[in-house]
Amino acid sequence: MILKGFKQNSTKKYISKLLDARKDFVANNKISSLAVLVNIDEYDDFESFIQFAKLINIAPNNLKIIAFTSNKKKDVDALNFCYNPKDFAWNGKVKHAELQEFIKTPFDALISYYQQDVLPLKVITAASKAKFKIGVLQTDNRLNDLIINTNFKQFDLFKTELIKYLNTFNKISNE
């Protein structure tokens, strides 16, 4: 129990360090690649993200969805990849190679679709090299560039609001 507390505290420090070092620069380019980070324990409709990507003209090969589950034994057939707490070492360091590759990829946008305060999800959001980070209301406003405050279970409302803001910011092409 004490070790778990030390691990959580060191992970929180790592997240703060990542967020403090982050530059508040948002590129003016259109979104052509999209990453989605979802907590499958809260929301498991991957098809809604695929449809959203089609709606904003993202090619299927430019969409990457990864899921997180807090259940270490749960084998989830996610679209691309599912990870769990065992994929993280002390200080929030990522142990899994595919997850490290996801973090290093400079996606045009990252949608962090989770509500629960789960440290591994926050680590991935904070460490991601995505150029524009989008999320639902969370405890730490520094995680995302754009926060859509909608009812978490109403994905259609989230999608509508997000498209409205992306059009306002001239981030999507209407071709």
Give a verbal description of the structure.
With 175 residues, this protein is α/β, with parallel strands linked by helices. It has a single domain (2-22, 30-168), classed as 3-Layer(aba) Sandwich (Rossmann fold). It is built from five helices and six strands. Strands 3-2-1-4-5-6 form a six-stranded parallel beta sheet, with helices on both faces. Helix 2 links the parallel strand 1 (34-39) and strand 2. Helix 1 (2-21) runs parallel beside helix 4. The longest helix has 20 residues, at 2-21.
Layout of strands and helices, then pairs:
Elements lengths: L1 H20 L12 E6 L6 H10 L7 E6 L12 E3 L13 H8 L4 E5 L5 H9 L5 E4 L9 E3 L6 H14 L7
Parallel strand pairs: 1-2, 1-4, 2-3, 4-5, 5-6
Helix pairs in contact: 1-4
CATH fold type = Rossmann fold
Proportion in β-strands: 15-25%
Give the total of domains: 1
Number of helices: 5
Helix content: 25-40%
Q: CATH class, please?
A: Alpha Beta
Please name the defining characteristics of this protein:
Rossmann fold, alpha/beta, single chain
Summarize this structure briefly:
The protein is 35% helix and 15% strand.
